[in-house]
Amino acid sequence: xxxxxxxxxxxxxxxxxxxxxxxxxxxxxxxxxxxxxxxxxxxxxxxxxxxxxxxxxxxxxxxxxxxxxxxxxxxxxxxxxxxxxxxxxxxxxxxxxxxxxxxxxxxxxxxxxxxxxxxxxxxxxxxxxxxxxxxxxxxxxxxxxxxxxxxxxxxxxxxxxxxxxxxxxxxxxxxxxxxxxxxxxxxxxxxxxxxxxxxxxxxxxxxxxxxxxxxxxxxxxxxxxxxxxxxxxxxxxxxxxxxxxxxxxxxxxxxxxxxxxx
Length: 262
What we know:
Elements: H1 3-9, H2 20-31, E1 36-37, H3 39-43, H4 51-60, H5 67-80, E2 84-92, E3 105-111, E4 115-118, E5 130-131, E6 138-140, E7 143-149, E8 154-159, E9 166-171, H6 178-190, E10 201-206, E11 209-214, E12 217-222, E13 225-230, H7 234-245
Antiparallel strand pairs: 1-10, 2-3, 2-9, 3-4, 4-5, 6-7, 7-8, 8-9, 10-11, 11-12, 12-13
Helix pairs in contact: 4-5
């Protein structure tokens, strides 16, 4: 791995020793520079879970990716610096209650003097890792998080006051490899039942908020509130991808056109 190129990609110039402070700084830098996006699903490009392919896409092509890609490559970067890092299986919380099946999401366990839950591939969540064994609330950028124990799983919860606690995902601490996520990754990018094949998503944290493209709708949030508008053409969509996320798709074509009022 070309570590210098990766660090340039995430605009990181800090310490590299395997410490909690380095982990926090790398995690935050990643969240502010590499978007969560599923554009390859809509482009008909297959996601290949190995470090060389992920590096070529995220660093070489200045792209983002889905959780398997973002957390997978981030784990490889951490390992280069001497962190002990393991891939965890998680299931996202459903709006109607319950959770998606195992391997629906990939998160990371990083073990130092204390154990940390790291995750640069879940979108609008914690920008710095959470202490895994902390039983109480943990504040990150004004939001509260906690990790509680269910009957079979650990459950990550988030609270944005004055709203109540909500589940984000459940997970176990059993370590896995890329190959264990392959079947669910294939389902996510090919099945009509997958939400990721039904919509385009590109979202990234900003220093004071978040910018999101959901289909043709552009939403920007910050301390001063939020703006939202509907893009009117594929040309405007691609211009927004470059302006806000630095993504250039070149001659790549989406498989289907989006309905403008979605």
